[in-house]
Amino acid sequence: MRAQHPAATGSGITRRHLLLMGAAVPAAAGLLGTFGLPAARAADGFDALRARWADYLTGGAGLDTGHPQIAAQLADLSSRAGEALAAAAPAPAAGGDVWADLPMAGPAEGNISLTYSRILVVATAWATPGTAQHADAGVAERLVAWYRHMSASWYNLTIRKSGNWWFWEIGIPRTLGDLSVLVDALLTDADRAAAVAAIRRFTPNPNYRGTSTSPETGGNRADKALACLLRGITGRDEADMVLARDALSDTAGGGRNSLFRYVTSGNGFYADGSYVDHSYLPYVGTYGNVALSGVARSLMLVTGSPWEVTDPDVEMILGAPERSFAPFVWNGRMMETVRGRAVSREREHDFHDGFTTAGSLLLLATQLPAPYRDTYRSLAKGWLSRCTEDYTASATLSDLSRALPVLADGAVVGTPEPVGHRQFGAQERMVHRGSGWAYTVATSSSRIGRYEWGNDENNLGWHQGDGAAYLYVDGDQGQFSDDYWPTVDPYRLPGTTASLAARQSGASGAGTGIPRAQNRWAGGVGLAGRWGTSGMDLTNSLGNLRAKKSWFLLDDAVVALGSDVTVTGSGAETVLENRGFATDLDPALLLDGARVTGPVEGATPTWAHVEGVAGYVLLGEGQAVRAQVADRSGSWHDVNSGADTGGSTDVRTRRYATLSVQHPAGTTGGRYGYVILPGATAERTATVAADGLEKLDVQVLRQDATAHVVRAVRKGRWFLFAHLFAATDEGPVRATGPCAVLVSGKAREATLAVSSPSRSIEGATVEIELDRKLTRVTSAHERLTVTGGHVVTVQAVLSNAAGASFEATLAG
């Protein structure tokens, strides 16, 4: 699937906004009505569906045009349409361009798609009451001329397909489908037939990629099914309607790639909440949004029609908002670890993807009964109310018609940010939330890619899967959206242990790539939905660095350990923090209380602090650090030079407070360790460091090439964290194979959790021993056989478990 968010169309609207214009309402049997469609009208078939989709695109006749935000959006739509009309060629000749800034000759499939998108802006204004162009005869004449020109010259049965397949098979068919619905009354049968024939040529069957037998999955399948429905409506073709409806359930493939079923491999939604796309990348933040909204809109469109979806598995999608999306939405912003190469898009920030999810939930809520309706409205209201970005400034008219009443409704209480931990074994991701902060880590393995680049997007993303760790704090919401990616040092992403060897930009033209790692150990373990871990056995892509990396997550702290750090060639660093600030700010970065005013190399402080962010306590002696507060500059075009999502060449500058542990070339068996105290003051950080680990109630029991083991105590509750990267018969936690273990309790009661981040390739059963006296087993997952005593033993069947965590409870 091609990038879904932005590239300006030249009229201020993005491709993503056009393809994700709202979400829609699924039609689970027995749960949903007919989206306000009277039964008599539902029987009218194609005319009714066309009217329904036109209302959906424009906001409908009931749009409150007197509302200030809606009036502002109407004015903006009218302005953009007016600019497009003024800049268009009066009468483009055969093979000519409609707009001079969008030349379509040569390998310019992106500009063909963007030309259609700009035409759609004008058509939407023409079809929307309240705009200057509404029902204007002159505008209608130009729309018909453009429609015929594009069919005759740029998208037809003879044009040669070039460049990125996505534009030909999804981008143009989706936009042309919307356009055809809006201007249907202006078209002749010949106009419709030409457009439908072209769409069918490039996307004959939504089940497959092009004319091949390679099946479509996830967001691509959802988009193609919706495009096929719009094709069917335009051509009044019942066969297309059936084909599209059945593609949602993958009837042709026996349901293997159904959008209504969990997957156990490849693309799609997993039972543990994971969403994977492009085979190897956690992608719920962008492609998951596309899948959710695409399916939902298709269901909304055909509800009550002769082509209504009756697949009983459709209800699966109703659980996805809470299970797959909400954990990664923080104060209305989608976390970077599940946004893939979209992080490099200038016009698609974290809040855009969070707003898309919120819009989908509000649309779902319009037709769902409790508890879905209430849950969705509360989640969306909480996100939109807390986000420091203005949702109403970028929402479509259709979205505003649903969001504004909910935001104004005092009876709808926004869901607060939760506190706790969510582990996603299938996609090797976790989200941990404390009071006023959140933390997430991106690891990689032979199963999950390091990062995605391609089509000249995410050109500098080399280390995004090497343990990039993102700290979110309430007082700094815009950290990763405020020109972060074009200005941050790509060799020094927070959390990573990375070589400083020079890398080449990924800008290389067509194609995509998701480099995978060599290691199998990646992931972690979660306990009771409250605490958890993340880690990886890192060997970098250059082959000149390796390290064992762990993060252990408590209510108020993150404990990070590294061992077996081996560096050849260029030196390397483990980055504790790399925080961006506006250039008019002077962030205070302290080392042992002294403010960093110039570059620091080789210092060995016991603690550090970044004002307004966190305290950092160094574990162990002699960790040589690098620290600096300095401006960095770059452009969005540096990180994304794609055909339709490419950023501007304008130079952006941010001020960065950078703190890292240095690993010189030749390091063998190196270690690092630190504790992050989110939101802590400098005074508290200094006190913790001065009193040592005893004050922090953290004890490192093992930190070597085989295992990381940490004991901690919080408010009378004890914790034992263990990452075993290989079998070991030494230490307080021993096992016959690699695993992750987390035990927590009070007095003589405890709960333990076990997982296999390496997916138990060494055997189906791992035997684990814990040095903790707990004599009685009160419950255990069926995969665990637990025996209490002075030493607790666990036989864990972890094969084919997709990295999931399994729990047992014990007592003294």
SSE order and pairing:
Layout (H helix, E strand, L loop, with lengths): L14 H5 L19 H4 L3 H13 L9 H20 L21 H19 L9 H17 L11 H18 L6 H14 L15 H18 L2 H12 L18 E2 L5 E3 L3 E2 L1 H19 L13 H10 L3 E2 L2 E2 L15 H16 L6 H15 L10 H12 L11 E5 L4 E6 L2 E6 L10 E2 L13 E6 L10 H4 L9 E3 L12 E2 L8 E2 L2 E2 L3 E9 L5 E9 L4 E10 L4 E10 L7 E3 L2 E2 L4 E4 L3 E4 L3 E5 L6 E10 L1 H4 L12 E12 L6 E9 L3 H15 L1 E6 L3 E8 L2 E8 L8 E3 L3 E8 L2 E7 L9 E6 L5 E5 L3 E4 L4 E6 L8 E6 L1
Antiparallel strand pairs: 1-2, 2-3, 4-5, 6-7, 7-8, 8-10, 9-12, 11-18, 13-15, 14-15, 15-16, 16-17, 17-26, 18-25, 19-20, 19-22, 21-24, 22-23, 23-26, 24-25, 27-28, 28-29, 29-31, 30-33, 31-32, 32-37, 33-36, 34-37, 35-36
Helix pairs in contact: 4-5, 5-6, 5-7, 6-8, 7-8, 7-9, 8-9, 9-10, 9-11, 11-12, 11-13, 13-14
